[in-house]
Amino acid sequence: MIRGAPLWYEVLWRLALPLALLRLWWRGLKEPAYRQHIAERLGRYPARPDARPVIWIHAVSVGETRAAEPLVAAFRDSHPDHLVVLTHMTAAGRETGKALFGEHVLQAYFPYDTASGCARFLDWCQPRFGLLMETELWPNMILRAAQRGIPVFLVNARMSEKSMHGYSRIAGISRSMLRALAGVAAQTAADAARLTRLGAIAVAVTGNVKFDLAVPDTSVLRGRVLRRLFGEGRPIMVAGSTRDGEEALLLAALERAPLPADALLVIVPRHPQRFDAVAELLTRRGFPFVRRSAAQAVPAGTAIVLGDTMGEMLAYYAAADVAFIGGSLLPLGGQNLIEPLAVGTPVLIGRSTFNFAEAARDALARGAARQGADADAIVAAAADLLGNPELRGRMAAAGTELLAAHRGATRRTLDWITARLAAVGQGAATAARG
């Protein structure tokens, strides 16, 4: 018999719930989307638009939503008679899902992980099966679904050493939750080993579905538009998905050793709520800049653009000559370096890459990426690459080869889900066959 989450966990959530709702309201001061659909956070949803059987995919935020894109496309192709319900925790994730999928999926917020909220969500959604992307582990939801006989899989799963030690501190609830999953499809053998140590069963290594990224023609075309706005003949460096503190490090490095005189730096913060803060930082440090949202040509004397738009990350990378990947200068694990590789842009990364450890190692080994110990090293490497088109071409070709070598994770994941659903008694009707 599968037990629910322990009483202490439920009590903690009940105590935290008013603070969580207050935080939503506070975040809504800068991001009004956080004040929308608040009832969904408590498991209260409007009636579903149709009665089709549901495939549920949970993608917490922007990165996970983008990672889910090939899986959503595959399920829509193989199960046209099913409705894909896509849940998120962040407003940015929901906005990304809307940009990627439009009305082809039904979007909602994932409820806070109370027993009652999860029960109401499952009553509303009634999924045939569910997929949790990467490291989304919520005890009440997983255990409640298991009690109802709903298979829930952790897919494209990753587990760093740091995260493993964190889950080990609550070993009892971690083990029961992981054992209640219908299976785990891990990105790498190292991820699989860590998850198995924590108690996961039916663990397979299927690879990283982010390598199966299909670059939309619209992103390529938008990249050309951006290139014209930025300046066709200017060398362009994009600092993509930067995190709090990294912009200041890069600006300080530029003050010590600027990029070539005609080069342009495009800074794209990871989180939209930080757009204004980065604008204030640039003003305070005396760097003239223009906002991408102004949709105007960049004057020749302006060396920085603030990428303050959503849904254009691939276009920014497509417009660039070299891309620095944010989250890697500080101990944050790095963001997605596969996206710039997919559009043929050489990559620069800092020392912290645990979120994309295998991809980073392979990119460095193949020569598709270069690594810098600090912001000064990153700026110096960017200056070198901006002045060396032949080296950029070799790095771009290496990136293309890297992606080709890793493609196929989506197909392997779908085949694995097919086998697991059959093993837990769901049969071929709900299997993810293509």
Keywords:
434 residues; Rossmann fold; disordered C terminus; 46% helix; 7-stranded parallel sheet; single chain; 14 strands; 17 helices; alpha/beta; 2 domains; globular
Which strands sit side by side, in order, in the main sheet? 3-2-1-4-5-6-7
Which term fits the overall shape? globular
CATH topology of the largest domain: Rossmann fold
Beta fraction of the residues? 5-15%
Largest sheet: 7 strands, parallel
Give Rg in angstroms.
Answer: 22 Å
How would you describe the oligomerization state of the chains in this entry? single chain
Low-confidence segments, given as residue ranges, are 427-434
Number of helices: 17
Q: CATH superfamily of the largest domain, please? A: 3-Deoxy-D-manno-octulosonic-acid transferase, N-terminal domain
> What's the N-to-C terminus distance?
34 Å
Overall structural class, as computed from helix and strand content, comes to: alpha/beta
What's the architecture of the largest domain in CATH terms? Answer: 3-Layer(aba) Sandwich
Number of beta strands: 14
Mean pLDDT over the residues: 93
Portion of residues in helices?
Answer: 40-55%
| CATH domain class of the largest domain | Alpha Beta
